[in-house]
Amino acid sequence: xxKYKLGIILILLLITGVVNAIENYLSTDQFVAETFGANVPxxxxxxxxxxxxxxxxxxxxHAPAQFxxxxxxxADTTAWVLxxxxxxxxxxxxxxxxxxxxxxxxxxTYRESRxxxxxxxxxLKQYQGLALQSDxxxxxxxxxxxxxxLSVKAVSRMARLAxxxxxxxxxx
Amino acid sequence: MFLIVIRxxxxxxxxxxxxxxxxxxxWGYSMRKSILGLAITAALFSGGAMAASxxxxxxxxxxxxxxxxxxxxxxxxxxxxxxxxxxxxxxxGYGELHYNNxxxxxxAGQKRAKDEIDFHRFxxxxxxxxxxxxxxxxxLELEHSNTENEGQVELEQAYLDFNFxxxxxxxxGVFLIPIGFLNETHEPPxxxxxxxxxxxxxxxxxxxxxxxxxxxxELAPGWKYQTGLTSSLAAANFENFATKGIREGRRNVSEAxxxxxxxxxxxxxxxxxxxxVGASVITGKTGQDDDxxxxxxxxxxxxxxxxxxxxDKLDLRALYAQGHLSDAQQVNDAFGYETANRFYGWYxxxxxxxxxxxxxDLAPFIRYEKWDTQADIPNNVVRSEESENxxxxxxxxxxxxxxxxxxxxxxxxxxxxxxxxxxxxxLGLGYMF
Lengths: 172, 433
Fold this sequence. Notes:
By secondary structure, chain A is of the alpha+beta class.
């Protein structure tokens, strides 16, 4: 009986079909095209100095993976693709900002085995219109998701970072 | 002529400054003299070729800057095997230190237990991603800070995770049974109260892990499922049932009996921000072909319904759990235990985040729990005084950082909880990373 049931499990594993790998919901190119339409601006690079790196460290709770950040800018709209670890894996998210506020958030790639509810539009909609306070925190509370606490916090950290980068890009 | 000379000097200075900036970016802020010399030479050399035009020169330098930036970016991505390994591996963990002060009444003839301080759990997570669809996850725990006294080292999770698609994924190995709230998510900053709630320790025996395979995914937007087969509990170990429920029946995948297997299933809806509603069940024989049971199945079916609503500053949580054990009478006859045909428990909890300032977060909470481990007993058992009880808990969590928590609470039991009395004051410290 045990062998029979374990056999079923193995068969189920095999028939789960073509391996689709990590969930890629949107490529960076698609995200940028979706944001700017036919007139995609040239990609720019934001270089971080020592002071910027300190702020980024404060927002993320760790040093950034690199000291430059690519972005796209057209008039007062900027688009950023950022990555941050939820519990164990990187979450890739796209942020569109307009006049210093979040216009839209999209999850581009989700790699964690739990907490993928953060990609739902109904959750991400909470970030629309948020701005950065002077202490680099968001100016409104985000309702969490049970069992996805770390993924929610990771998306919020990225939202703060996108707003901070947007401020830097405006200064530059 | 004079103007041309002035322009050339300005251009030399400009080129020299740009070269120095490039050197600073790629060799750090403490540039050595030799590099400075190189920069000056480069500037002079560049100046010699300036006859063409100033704009051409600036364009050339811009190209060089772009190339050097590209090289730096490439170097970041390819900085050796160690980084490549670490990029695919993750380390995490959590821990909690508890202080328990026992007071109030104790059962007649018993002496109250001494107060305790205990580094209850020290846990390390290690994970590794082999490729874009296979990863390994593990959790190693040291309980009670050493392996003497009641402490032990436990491998709570060690499984391979196969990411097939949004709808269907699989994991196989040793993993946590997907039941209730705390069994899978029990890092101290994620729950209220110093100690885990009683329902999810005595009725749902968290932390509960078994070996097996499980499928999980999303049925429709907002609807998550998990189902699979695992090893099962052992009725031969259902000791102290009245006070501990089925906890002692966990064999922790340590040379555990494997004559029986259990089927688990879970369904959750979390399509609205802040809301999670769900149910889970596990069923399996626990007799494990024990000779003393004379063929009795001792099938255990344990289920729960749970809901959590976290909106703005309010955090509400409720859970009801119930278990059924067939052949409880045979189990008691065979091993001299006091198992029940049916046992249950439930709790409701409300917290309010009264103060949030940056990372700082303070939330008082109140919780009511009620349980009965012998709600329905066979006729060969005398109902224990300690099987049924309820607790009011009031306290607060304070997070100075989202991953660090300080906890305090006071608990009032309806009846003495054995020699630990009917009142308890607890302090706790926890972290996760």
